[in-house]
Amino acid sequence: MEKNFPGFSFENEKLTSIPISFFTKALKEVNDLAQLKILLYVFWRHSRSEFPQAYVTFKGFTEDTTFMDGLGKTKASQIESLKHGLKLSVEQNLLLTAMVTIDNKNLDIYLLNTSEGKNIIRAIQIGKWEKTNNESYPIRLDLEFPNVFTLYEENIGPITPLIADALKEIENLYPLIWIEEAFEEAIKNNVRKLRYIEAILQNWQKEGRNDRTDRRRSKKSEKEDDPERYIKGEFSDFIEH
After folding, report:
1. Paired strand residues for 139
2. Cβ partners under 8 Å of residue 37, min gap 6
3. Phi first, then psi: what are they for 105, rounded to 5°?
């Protein structure tokens, strides 16, 4: 940076939005300078994007020479710092990543861990995306996913401030596909209570969840169809039944 840097201006410059949770929760875990630069860069790209949820390809990082110059003195050290910082960010669940194939080329994309970001990752996993003409943004979703608040309002009822706080916590703790299927379980078993849904999610997290590509059941999975399995044992004290 030049020594005669004129200073920042809140009046004449565009601002980049960064959630408060980055400073109150995430920042204390970030000890690598390259990782911090990468995260701030992704926030900046997110704020400047015309898309609802911006993501950056690995190539997109490397093509921005101004950004890469801040990661090292040589090209090799820059790439090494980039890979290390991205790896740390993914491991700490600050960034999400996936690989997509465009014109027989594999592209790694990185995006912020938000509800929209989780939707994009899920869409890629189940094939609900299609190619665009922009290599930097190769994915266009062809499926809208409801968020946890919509699921609650449509299936259980109005959202109070306390319920809203609980739903935010659920959204932060579990993948959206788990949340959707937990709501499905609650509706199927006619137990439309948030605590029941939380119990399902906690049980899946503790004991594992059997991901299935279809709804067929074997005898081995018959036990999973028992609607009382989430209201016994450690969950029985807070589930009304």
Report:
1. 131
2. 67, 70, 71, 85
3. -115, 130
- Rounded Cα distance between 126 and 213, Å, is 9
Max CA separation in the chain (angstroms): 73
| Alpha-carbon gap, residue 62 to 78, rounded angstroms | 9
Cα gap 49→40, rounded to integer Å: 14
Q: What is the pLDDT of residues 58-112, one digit of tens each?
A: 988 998 899 999 999 999 999 999 999 999 999 999 999 988 877 778 888 898 9
Identify which has the larger pLDDT, 56 or 77. 77
Same domain? For 48 and 127 the reply is yes
Each residue of 26-46: b (16+ CB within 10 Å) or e?
beeebeeebbebbbebbbbbb
Q: Residue 168: which of 152, 188, 186, 187 has the closest Cα?
A: 152
Q: Which of 120, 141, 162 is the last residue of a domain?
A: 141
The answer to whether the predicted template modeling score (pTM) of the entire model surpasses 0.85 is: no
Of 232, 234, 235, which Cα lies nearest the Cα of 223?
A: 232
Note whether 74 and 180 are same-domain residues. Answer: no
Q: Which of 199, 221, 222, 197 is nearest to 210 (CA)?
A: 221
**Digit-coded pLDDT (tens) for 160-196:** 888 888 988 888 888 777 888 899 999 999 888 999 9
Q: How many domains does the structure of the chain reveal? A: 2
